[in-house]
Amino acid sequence: MKLLKLSVLVLLTVAFSVRPTKIAESTCMSMPEDWHDSYHIFTPISFSELTDFWKKPEQSEEANLNDWLAYLNNKPKLDDVRQIVYKVSANDMQAIRGYVSAGKGNLSPDLQKNSLIKYWQGNKDIEAIDYLFYAKTCEGQAGTFDDWETPKRDMSQVKWLADAGKKYYAEKASNDFLKVRFAYQAIRMAHYSNQYNKAIGWYDELVKPLEGKTNSPIVHWALAHKAGCLMSAGKEGEANFLFAQIFDKCPSKRVSSALSWKVENETVWTNALGFCKSPQDYGALHFMRSLDGGADILAEMKNVYQKTPEYDKLHVMLLREINQLENALLKVELKENLLFLNQTSPSSPAEGAKKLHKLREFVTKCVAEGKTQNKEIFAMASGYLDFMAGNGAQGIKKLEDLAKQTKNPAYQKQIEVCKLAIQVASLAKADEASETDLFNAVIKAEHKHLTEMMWNAFARLYDKQGEKGKALMCSFGSLQMSPKVEALDQLIAMTDKKKKTQMEQHLMNYLSNKNAKAYLTEIKATLLFSQDKLKEAIALYEQVPADMVGKIKENPLAFAIPHYATYPTEEGKNKYNRLLLAQKMANLKKMVENPNLDQAQQYFQLGCIYYNLTFFGNSWDAIDYYRSGTDIALAYAPNEDNFANFDCSKAKYYFDRAMNTALKDQNKELGAKAAYMAAKCEQNQYYINAKNKEVWGFIEPTYAPEHRRYFATLKKEFADTKYYKDILNECSYFNTFVKRK
Fold it and tell me: How far is CA 650 from CA 5, 371, 657, 741, in A?
């Protein structure tokens, strides 16, 4: 099977918000917010509570509230129960007790309307109210602390609360729901007061007898504290066994159990295995060990399969292993993408490829023996792993056979995604059929990574076929940040195409909501403008609706003494768009061809415009779309994609002509201004000298003659002008230069 070589995805990132990244522009395919560096195609998951448990700590609150609702016969509203259980204070609970038991108490109108309080008014469940008062008192000593914060507790109070909880267990709880909760709080307080043996003993005495009588998650919450105490008491094997049990059976404590798991040596591991009483126990321990960052998941799967092939989370281990293989083999960066470079043969030296073939062998065995609980996922994985190993034809056959057997909609969708991934990987040419049928199928599948994989595949093929415009868009490139005439011309031609493919129409929709051709034409005109091809740029701008021609915020004819303050007044702001400025420049160039009374002023205006079109000026947006403070780094490493303009040579040329013409015309004030602006150009050239690459932002001013020719001219020719005095007062560089001997 011939596999494609996807094009490298280039992302340009910059630090400042003025110049956004390429992917932010509307002329490219939208990237996901959670950008990644590999494709995850195999995702037949309705198991997010297992695979994404790190992201769902809020489950503990929901589990607790659901337990309360069951106890309350689902009569009160969920939000009202949440308000009482999680938001009101211990003092509020005292007021609620008086209000419910004797109709007395100063309750807010909000609490009086609460459906749980009304429910208690009907059944007088004072025990539940007393429990919540006690629990909220305990919470004041338990607290929520940051990772770096040491809990500050009143240990005497915590110990008292622990003993009080055991007492209330016997005196204030007439049902198992409240018994297990009083026991939990007592054990928790004993744990937090470092009374580890007491907490362990209380669990066995108070909670263990209730294990078979209630489905409350609080049983496992209490067990987690027992496990924590065992860990602190040095009984690590039993503690880890219990954490595995809690993770396996109690979703609301998966996060804390996984974080508390700590097996640092084989002795602890062997000791933990000694507590296993069933195959499920054994599977749970291996599952926990597979979650470690450096775990050999395949080895853990084989261990589980050997003793308990029907373990209910074996398929989750498989999904995680495939996900890791995708991270290794399906890199977006193709220099690391073994799959699309067809290097995943058994002889490949790549560790990921070796791992792939071992997993493929294991999955093939599982499918053949038919012992696993989630047989369809293993069968699906078998076809997908064939694809990853380079045998797409065999993979498709397995997937199609499974599609005829399964009735699960989620699996049907995953089968289709895998088949489409194989088609994308096999694509040898982008043509009308693929731009319609395959494109539509991938979009319809609504699978984020598959869609990105398709765009990358088409980008590679378009580039190979010479369709640079499509290639740029499909590879998340920006037409505005790195425009190319060839790419723009191809896309402009596509706008005139009467019958577009589905993909072509999709690309056009991204270009502009109004007029794609005008949008592209404006970009091309701006590119020509940046190259000083004024005549060609003007001709194109005139084809674009006025409201789509880029506006220029500042006055491109402005100038000033301070280095960056090239727009000291409001005069001339928002007067020009790109077309009007290009026409202004063309007219000025035409006028200065012949001597005239205003020739010096015309030269000066051209100098100002060319200066302001640079990175250092105020009207850079006339020939560019984005700007960033970090762009200065590009001045030291020029390349064809560098669209920022650092070239002050044209501005210096016109300022020099203005200065000499003004001198000839005896207009020394204008000559002084032109000489000073030429000096600014000269200084900018010094700033971007490659020798200063490592010290940009901290460059010492230079007064070397080769960098201060125009300062010398100002001192020699224009010392008697008013502008000279202004410069001397306002420009510290010039002031220092004049005072130097």
Answer: 44, 78, 11, 31
Helix (H, G, I), strand (E, B) or coil at 219: helix
pLDDT value, residue 721 = 97
Please work out, in degrees rounded to the nearest 5, the angle formed at the alpha carbon of residue 41 by the alpha carbons of 37 and 43. 115
Q: Which residue has the tokens 């599609």?
A: 403
Q: Dump pLDDT digits (tens) for 389-439.
A: 888 899 999 999 999 999 999 899 999 999 999 999 888 999 999 999 999
| Amino acid letter, 475 | S
Give Rg (Cα) of the chain. 37
β-strand partners of 552: 576
Q: Could you give the CA distance from residue 61 to residue 293 in angstroms, rounded to a whole number?
A: 28
- Confidence (pLDDT) at 688: 82
Q: How does pLDDT run across 166-175, given as a tens digit for each residue?
A: 999 999 999 9
Closest CA to 550 of 611, 620, 479, 495: 620
SS percent in the chain: helix, strand, coil, step 5: 65, 0, 35
Return the H-helix or E-strand segment holding 577.
Answer: strand 576-577
- The answer to whether 314 and 303 are in contact (CB under 8 A) is no
How far apart, in whole angstroms, are the C-alpha atoms of residue 37 and residue 43? 17
**Cα 304-308-312 angle, rounded to 5 deg:** 85
Measured CA to CA, the distance from residue 684 to residue 673 in angstroms comes to 17
d(CA 346, CA 454): 27
Give the CA distances from residue 368 to residues 237, 279, 362, 380, 436, in Å, rounded to whole numbers and listed in that order: 36, 22, 10, 13, 38
Element (H, E) at 72: none
Q: Which residue has the tokens 């060990």?
A: 289
Question: Which residues, 6+ apart, have CB-to-CB distance to 710 below 8 Å?
Answer: 675, 676, 678, 679, 682
Contact 684, 667 (CB under 8 A): no
